[in-house]
Automatic annotation (TrEMBL):
This is Uncharacterized protein. The keyword Flavoprotein does not apply. Residues 19-32 have a biased composition (Polar residues). One of its GO terms (biological process) is maturation of SSU-rRNA from tricistronic rRNA transcript (SSU-rRNA, 5.8S rRNA, LSU-rRNA). Keywords: Nucleus. Its main location: nucleus. Belongs to the RRP12 family.
Length: 1212
């Protein structure tokens, strides 16, 4: 309700709805009554009672229609009689005014739905509902639709505990009476309106009305009115499609037979599709009532409908295919079994018709006939192997024809046959013939191999092991023979066929029905040999072997009934368990094979191997896992003792050393180890944390610990060794490599969660590391650092003791401290006394994140002290510190209660105003957004008190922009809602940030920002409208001037950019213009003036910071990048002139700015563009959307002069 009312409030210049709502809300505010639905309801009803006949009745009823559905049912029942009297009086007084009638109908709907069962026995209630029903046949479309919707909503919402609404009988009686009267007077239009209502409510009508209703509906097609007949059929379709209605079988059969006798002409493009729909719905309902009797009717009905394929009308053919596909499903399994044993049978006659449908006589309907054949294959399943041989042969012949139009349909039909009849049955009729020479009798069907790969599932695996595997071996032998003979093309063809056959393994491994008989030891060994000898086939074979475990495991744990599983898959839960036991017997040997292949594979292609290893480990016995891990551990120990100079950047095609491979395998095995093995793995991993000279080893060691922390046994081992783990992590602090940083932060998070409350000394020990990591280059590392800070805060807030004597650097006599959130904040604030701006900035950023998370748990005096401290950093001379401090201020304004900020408003305003005068405008946008937030929370007048007179221009500018933005938004909403009959509540746009903290820190939701961007002129395409989600983001490659780009070079990835790069000539010209912008000294060097603060900062830089000059140069260059929100990389583009709108604040600075060269195109008529159409619209308060062109001479000369056109004015 509030969303709908909120859309009306801003429409100051709209109709009376806004004025009446404003008056009502003012009255409620004066009476100090909360704005709740009940209050609105009482005020509006009182106002309406005295002004029913006046013009203001329309807006009052409009608002009442919005409010009534939200009024409590008890209130609606209590004031039912009073409200009903007023509404019926309003309806009677304004019968000719459609908008008022629609509003009254909405009010009556909400009022009637709220009533209980006893109320429906009163005449007034039935009278009100009668008024709704009568309007269901109104001549005004919108009124009629609103009335029908109201009746439907009332009937489908019976008062509890009733199942059928008391008014449903009234609806049925009215419909029957209306149809009977109209049938006599031949008023088909009115009858269609009644049938439209009946279509929506027929399933809710009392059962005793079905028989007379069906009899009446069956008479309507005899009036020879196509539209009336279609409407009647749609009612039957709704009636048959409901599963909640229990029909009397005899009556149902009579109705269905009567409908079948009403079959229209086979060429009737209007009525026949509707008739086919009700036949499909009727047969489905008949099958649900009596499957055996329904099945006996299918063959005859199938032949009657199939004959209409001769029509040649695409719409009719599509409807026939859909209907027959539904009818085919109405066949019992016993009926199919009988067909396999009898020569003459109704099902065989249906199949014969389908086969004849592929003859030349039905050529126009082949695509639709194939849809019916697919339905037959799906229903017959394995029985289709014998019954559908002729059809399958005909489909195969058509597939060999040169006609490409129906090849997709033919492939879909062959795929259905492969899936449901089985590949053995299909290939028996359509053999591959890959070995025999091509002739008329043995045509090669290599096109079947991709179809087999896509559609094989739940079939006999023995066919692959007994037929296809030997065929593959013979094809491979031929490939070798051709290769030896120097016939490379033929060799490649047969090698491809070999690989295509083996690529069928995943399909045959998808729940095979004969796994114990087919997957024998020789077959398993053959799989292993192919894994070793053919690397290209490893992904497919590994996928298949993994599916044998995963799918059977799902089958064994299924909640479905045994009969259902047997019917659907030909297997039971016991079969699944037996298949798992079979695969467990092969697990140890296969793991050895996978481990060997893993060591020979480069890391970028190991993902499928890791998946299949994990899958096999899940079923391997504990003894086999223990033995396997012992081997891995031994190989790892030997490999670690050997020096390694491996670097993936040197040659990524070379497999990594054994130590790396064994650690990767240990990561995969960690969740499945027992206690002894897990303890051994922990000792190995912690011993590698200090290997600073081997970054990859160190990184994998951290990954091992992280993997252990995610599994039960590994977590238990870490808990047992928590003291040792803390010691090892602290000892390795100085040895952490950049590549290991995020994995180390992750294990620190897990470790903090495992810490005992009696000893939390790890938190102060790693606090400075976590704080500094918030400034890491890697985004994932930064996120983990913030997560670690928050987790440590939660641990401290939960209580416990911080043993300070164990903290490195603390004196021995220091007393222990009780863990509290306040104590934790004091620890973090210690970083504000850091010796470097980097540390101070990181501490401020950390405090802002923690303040946002724990604001409700902090003492007010602590929050006050934090705010006071930040005032000093806001006015710092170091930009890095100021940037974090302004972020802290913004988070505080957004998240803290106004009372906590009230005493600091003066200092906040004074601090941020310091940076509004900064001549390089580094923080102008941030200052503007902070002021915007302050004004939202405290109001313009409150903030204005703290702003000096010289800076009031900024505040005035912000206020004007807000007002202008609101006016534009309001105007857009009015235009958008002009043609809308009902206002739909609009969802709030989703946040573009990852979490609430980033939304508070970076999100502005500023009216100023959108207003500024709309007001900016188009400049060289820099300010184009944002792309829609459907549009693909373009990518470009920057080329060097030295020569063509080498795509095999690994550095080519670094040359991909999302912005169109300049050519070398343009880049050189831009560089030259930049050089000319600075003065030159006597020695030819550029002279660049620095500010005093920058010079002082440069003097304070040490040697390590001087090394970053190249990095800064890259940032400032045209092809460099800067850091945006969350320290994310943002490539440099031409700067927007959004901040230039602040010229009235800093006139002296902006007046010195150089005028940018380029084209400013002022589009004529852009403000009249329609949002949802291709033309222009009339805007309120603006002239008509015509072209207003000055009657002066239109200049079209060459040179640097103005040009005028009817699409825009170009200023050069």
């Amino acid at each position: 309700m509030e969303e709908q009312l909120a859309k009306i409030r801003p429409q100051i210049h709209s109709k009376l709805e806004n004025q009446k709502q404003a008056t009502t809300e003012e009255t409620l505010d004066e009476q100090q009554t909360p704005r709740i639905p009940t209050a609105y309801y009482a005020a509006l009803l009182t106002t309406l009672d005295g002004q029913i006949a006046s013009p203001v009745a329309a807006p009052i009823l409009y608002l009442l229609d919005i409010v009534l559905p939200h009024v409590p049912q008890s209130i609606s029942r209590q004031r039912f009689t009073e409200t009903l009297t007023i509404l019926l009086t309003a309806l009677k007084s304004h019968t000719t005014e459609a908008p008022i009638v629609r509003s009254v109908l909405g009010c009556l709907e909400a009022l009637i739905i709220a009533q209980d069962g006893p109320t429906w026995k009163q005449p007034t209630t039935r009278k009100a509902f009668q008024a709704l029903i009568m309007l269901c046949n109104d001549g005004r479309p919108k009124v009629r639709k609103r009335a029908q919707d109201a009746v439907r909503n009332v009937v489908t919402t019976p008062p509890l505990p009733m199942v059928v609404h008391p008014a449903a009988g009234m609806v049925a009686d009215w419909c029957l009476q209306s149809l009977s009267n109209m049938k006599k007077r031949d008023e088909s239009g009115s009858a269609i309106h009644v049938l439209t209502l009946l279509k929506h409510v027929v399933v809710m009508l009392p059962a005793q009305h079905f028989n007379p209703l069906c009899e009446t509906l069956l008479q309507l097609p005899k009036m020879n009115n196509a539209f009336l007949t279609i409407a009647a059929f749609e009612v039957f379709e709704s009636l048959f499609g409901s599963e909640s209605i229990s029909f009397d079988e005899d009556k149902f059969v009579q109705v269905l037979r009567a409908l079948l006798e009403l079959k229209p002409s086979g060429n009737d493009e209007q009525v026949l599709p509707a008739w086919l729909n009700i036949v499909a719905s009727g047969m489905t309902s008949y099958y649900r009532i009596n499957p055996n009797e329904c099945t006996t009717q299918v063959p005859q009905l199938f032949s009657i409908i199939f004959a209409d394929f001769h029509s040649g009308i695409p719409k009719i053919n599509t409807s026939i295919a859909q209907c027959l596909s539904t009818v085919v499903r109405c066949i019992t399994d016993d009926f199919i079994t009988e067909a396999t044993t009898h020569k003459k049978h109704g099902l065989k006659s249906m199949i014969k018709l389908a086969e004849d449908g592929l003859s030349i006589h039905y050529q126009d309907a082949w695509a639709e006939v194939l849809v019916v054949i697919q339905a037959l294959f799906k229903r017959l399943r394995r029985s289709g192997a014998n019954l559908m041989k002729g059809v399958l042969s005909a489909v195969g012949e058509l597939r060999l024809s040169p006609d490409d139009l129906i090849k997709p349909s033919l492939d879909a039909t062959l795929g259905a046959a492969i899936t449901h009849a089985g590949p053995a049955a299909v290939l028996a009729v359509l053999p591959l013939n890959l070995e025999t020479p091509t002739n008329t009798k043995s045509i090669g069907r290599a096109f079947m191999l991709p179809l087999l790969k896509e559609h094989i599932m739940n079939t006999e695996m023995a066919y692959f092991s007994q037929e296809l595997m030997p065929l593959a071996d013979r094809l491979l032998q031929k490939s070798h023979e051709f290769s030896d003979a120097g016939r490379a093309i033929e060799s490649k063809i047969y090698d491809t066929l070999f690989q295509q056959i083996w690529s069928l393994v995943p399909g045959f491994c998808d729940l095979p029905t004969d796994l114990p008989q087919a997957f024998t030891m020789p077959v398993a060994e053959k799989f292993s040999k192919v894994l070793y000898s053919h690397p290209d086939l490893r992904p497919a074979i590994c996928q298949g072997l993994g599916q044998l475990i995963v799918k059977n495991n799902q089958l064994a744990k299924s909640d479905a009934e045994e009969d259902h599983l047997r019917q659907a898959y030909g297997l039971t839960k016991q079969n699944g368990q037996k298949n798992i036991e079979l695969m467990r017997s092969f697990a140890a040997n296969y793991l050895a094979v996978f481990f060997n292949i893993y060591s020979q594979t480069v890391p970028m292609y190991r993902s499928y191997l890791s998946d299949v290893i994990t899958t096999f480990l899940s079923i391997t016995s504990e003894q086999d896992i223990r033995t396997t891990y012992a081997k891995v551990s031994g190989l790892l120990k030997d490999a670690l003792e050997q020096p390694s100079n491996y670097s993936a950047a040197n040659d990524p095609s070379v497999p990594p050393p054994m130590s790396h491979t064994m650690l990767d395998l240990a990561i995969s095995m960690a969740p499945f180890l027992d206690h002894v093995s897990a303890q051994s793995l922990y000792q190995t991993a912690t011993s590698l944390l200090a290997r600073e000279d081997e970054p990859q080893i160190q990184k994998k060691a951290y990954k091992v610990l992280n993997q252990m922390a995610t599994c039960t046994m590994g977590k238990h081992v870490l808990q047992e060794n928590i003291e040792d783990l803390q010691s090892k992590l602290l000892e390795s602090t100085t040895a952490v490599t950049p590549s290991s940083r995020k994995d180390r932060l992750q294990i620190l998070i897990y470790t903090v969660d495992l810490l005992p409350t009696s000893d939390l000394h790890l938190i102060p020990s790693i606090l400075s590391e976590a704080v500094l990591c918030t400034k890491e280059v890697n985004e994932r590392s930064r996120d983990l650092a913030y997560e670690l800070l928050v987790d440590m805060g939660r641990k401290m807030a939960a209580g416990g003791t911080v043993v300070n004597s164990k903290v490195e650097g603390m004196e021995e006599g220091v007393q222990d401290v009780t863990a509290t959130i306040g104590e934790y904040f004091l620890m973090v604030t210690a970083g504000l006394a850091g010796s470097t701006p980097h540390m101070i900035s990181a501490s401020v950023a950390s405090l802002s994140r923690l303040l946002f998370e724990f604001k409700d748990s902090l003492a007010p005096n602590l929050v006050s002290d934090l705010l006071s401290t930040m005032h000093h950093f806001v006015i710092s001379s170091n930009r890095e510190i100021v940037k974090s401090s302004l972020g802290f201020v913004k988070v505080a304004i957004v998240s803290l209660e106004p009372a906590l900020l009230q005493n600091h408003l003066g200092d906040i305003v004074k601090g941020i105003l310091t940076w509004s005068h900064e001549h390089k405008s580094h923080f102008k946008a941030k200052v503007r957004h902070i002021f915007e937030r302050l004004i939202r929370r405290f109001g313009y007048e409150e903030i204005d008190k703290y702003v000096p007179e010289d800076d009031k221009k900024l505040l005035i500018n912000i206020r004007k922009r807000r007002e202008r933005a609101k006016r534009k938004k309001q105007g857009a909403m009015e235009v958008e809602d002009e043609d809308m009959e009902e206002d739909e509540p609009q969802a709030k746009p989703a946040s573009q940030y990852n979490n609430a903290y980033e939304d508070a820190l970076y999100g502005s939701e500023s009216e100023l920002e959108s207003d500024t961007e709309e007001a900016m002129p188009v400049r060289n395409g820099a300010n184009k409208a944002p792309k829609s989600k459907k549009e693909a983001v373009q990518s470009f490659i920057r080329e060097d001037e030295e020569g063509p780009l080498d795509f095999l070079d690994r550095a080519v990835v670094g040359k991909v950019t999302s912005s169109k790069p300049d050519t070398y000539a343009k880049k050189a010209a831009r560089v030259q213009s930049m050089l000319n912008a600075f003065a030159s000294g006597e020695d030819g060097r550029m002279v660049i003036n620095e500010t005093d603060s920058e010079a002082e900062a440069a003097e304070e830089e040490d040697d390590s910071e001087e090394k970053e000059n190249y990095y800064m140069e890259a940032q400032r260059s045209a092809d460099g990048f800067t850091r945006g929100q969350g320290n994310r990389i943002k490539f440099n583009k031409r700067q927007r002139d959004a901040d230039d709108d602040m010229m009235d604040v800093d006139i002296e600075t902006s007046s010195k700015a150089k005028k940018k060269k380029g084209r400013d195109i002022q589009r004529i008529g852009a403000e009249f563009k329609a949002k949802r159409a291709g033309g222009d619209v009339k805007r309120k308060g603006k002239p008509d959307p015509y072209a207003y062109v000055p009657l002066t001479k239109v200049i079209k000369k060459k040179g640097k002069h103005q040009k005028m056109s009817f699409t825009g004015k170009l200023n050069k």
